[in-house]
UniProtKB/TrEMBL annotation:
<keyword id="KW-1133">Transmembrane helix</keyword>
<dbReference type="Pfam" id="PF04087">
    <property type="entry name" value="DUF389"/>
</dbReference>
<keyword id="KW-0472">Membrane</keyword>
<feature type="transmembrane region" description="Helical">
    <location>
        <begin position="87"/>
        <end position="107"/>
    </location>
</feature>
<feature type="transmembrane region" description="Helical">
    <location>
        <begin position="64"/>
        <end position="81"/>
    </location>
</feature>
<feature type="transmembrane region" description="Helical">
    <location>
        <begin position="253"/>
        <end position="273"/>
    </location>
</feature>
<feature type="transmembrane region" description="Helical">
    <location>
        <begin position="160"/>
        <end position="176"/>
    </location>
</feature>
<protein>
    <submittedName>
        <fullName>DUF389 domain-containing protein</fullName>
    </submittedName>
</protein>
<feature type="transmembrane region" description="Helical">
    <location>
        <begin position="183"/>
        <end position="205"/>
    </location>
</feature>
<feature type="transmembrane region" description="Helical">
    <location>
        <begin position="211"/>
        <end position="233"/>
    </location>
</feature>
<keyword id="KW-0812">Transmembrane</keyword>
<dbReference type="InterPro" id="IPR005240">
    <property type="entry name" value="DUF389"/>
</dbReference>
<feature type="transmembrane region" description="Helical">
    <location>
        <begin position="119"/>
        <end position="140"/>
    </location>
</feature>
Amino acid sequence: MENTTNNQSEEKFTTSENTTNPDLNGYWISIKQFLIELLDIRKDTDKEATIEDIKGNISMKGHTAWVLVFSILIASIGLNVSSTAVVIGAMLISPLMGPILGVGLSIGINDIDTLKRSLINLGVMVVLSLATSFFFFLIPLFRNETPEILARTAPDVRDVFIAIAGGLALIIALSRRSKQTNTIAGVAIATALMPPLCTAGYGLATWNLSYFGGAMFLFTINTIFIALATFVIVKFLGFPMLKYINSTKRKRIARLASFVAFLVLTGSIYLFFNLFKENQFRQAAQNLIDDIKKDGISIIDEVDENIDYHNKRVKIFVYGNKLSASEIEKWNNRLPEYGLESTLLEIQQGVDDSDLRHEVKNLTDLYVQNQKIITNRDESIKEKEDKIKILEIELSKYYNAQIPFMQISKEAQINYNGLKELSYAKQIKTNFNTIDTITVFNTVWHDSVPNTNQQEILLKKWLKTRLNLDTLIVN
């Protein structure tokens, strides 16, 4: 009986397993299918139109050349006034992407003629851009260094990622049947091909070869990785290879294209590796400097030049209390903790800065004292302003309580011909419980007026109405 029960239990367990596995497999297949459809870029790809579109934008002649010149001029002005909006506008209208995409496409489809044409136009593009920016920055008025120019004088490892991502996005957007113009415009802004060329022209005009070299290096990185991204997508999407009647020529061109692609790929990897190592070195050096400052050591004159990657040297300038030889040795011994094993740490400090620190303390005390004086003065001014406001309120009440006696006397003389004199006063009266202020008018009438009491009653009524008073005495 027990065996029968166990067998039934095993059968149920096996049945539940068999029913669960197909469900899990079905879910996995559905998820996999969804991801394939979500990330598939082969669908809706127009290869022939993409090739024609890229080839049509390679040329740097006529209208395209003038558009390039004017866009470079606009970008140079934007860099000179540090206007990001102007630089972005120039990048939107520039035709710089055409030859670069042509290089990547031609290598991908073994089109040696298009490769030659692309490289020639790329060279023309660079020369035109450098010449335009060079002549602009030759004008003394426009030769000042701005943050926008300094930001394009040295490449960073992040520029590589921007160029790769931008190139991939651009060729994917171009390969669709319905072109995504907003993506193309966004890539033109993000990859920033034009500002480095303008900065390189600035470096030539000011004879600053470090600016020229750094800017051209940044432009070269962007160019190589955009072309590389184009080559990768062209190969991935299976663009049709250019066929030659002569099989020997086809093989020779295929080998040449493969060799060029290998050189570009190798150079790209080399550039990326160097930039990555430099960025890693600078980050480690900055971490070292931050930890030194956290240890209570004051550092001044922190500039990028103090971190020298090529000579493996970190220079810091210390002020305040001098570091002892043991402290300097301690930080040198800690260099391996930051990955700076073969790095030279130069710590430069003054001989005796006690006078300087004393002067800084005096200036600090003087600043605190001046702040107290300013605070007290502000409080005194506020107190006086409050008193003025109170007096203004009281004065306003006083003026509101006054009667326009001159105007009233003229009107009374017109209305009452027998009125000889009219006087006015405020009478204060008390019954020792309350105090009242009563308006009193005293009158003197001509002898010819027969009934002065009646005239006074009329005058009193008129005055109460005219002055809007409840209580009034007329004598």
